[in-house]
Amino acid sequence: MTTPARSSAQPTPAASPRRKAKSDRRSQLVAAAERLFAEHGYLAVRLEDIGAAAGISGPAIYRHFPNKEALLVELLVGISTRLLAGATEVANETEDADHALAALIDFHLDFALGESDLIRIQDRDLGNLPAAAKRQVRRKQRQYVEIWVHVLRRRDPELTESDARLMAHGTFGLLNSTAHSMKPGATRTAEVSSRTVLREMTVAALTSASSVTKRRD
């Protein structure tokens, strides 16, 4: 059997470190943008400020992002994509609706407690996205909500879609508020305590809301 010839298009060993360095610099710019946008607001931050915070200046910035707007797109479309993918996976892991809801709550708690900067950026600067990116974010957000609606109605088939959707939005409001109330750099003990309280409040609120809809009917 003839051994296939090595393609001339295959990267040389030296190319891999270069790609990694480029990827690292891009990640550094994204992390710096996230930090600065959350702290100062998108409109108050210049692309040069982001480059300086990442240790990247001059023309090198433009090799990764053409403008500041592209960084905002990367952040907000990126987190919407990750949330939707993660929730889809979590919801499909079990046929048990109670377990699926518990897993969704834990998943969103991970987001709320671990991505507070992105929550602040989205709350304040979603309107600064270009129209196409804003539509993309909104579409993914609606799909994320519908995952919760589906699980809530699996758990309680008597729930209407509108009630389940209202319960989902109420849950997001409760959990996402931690981005504005928790102090940056909170200790691990404080985070664990907050997680426990928020989880219990969420379960209680969803259980109570489900009971209210039954009494109303």
From TrEMBL:
This is TetR family transcriptional regulator. Gene3D superfamilies: Homeodomain-like, Tetracycline Repressor, domain 2. GO terms for molecular function: DNA-binding transcription factor activity; transcription cis-regulatory region binding. Residues 1-13 have a biased composition (Polar residues). It comes from the Bacteria. PROSITE patterns: HTH_TETR_2. Homodimer.
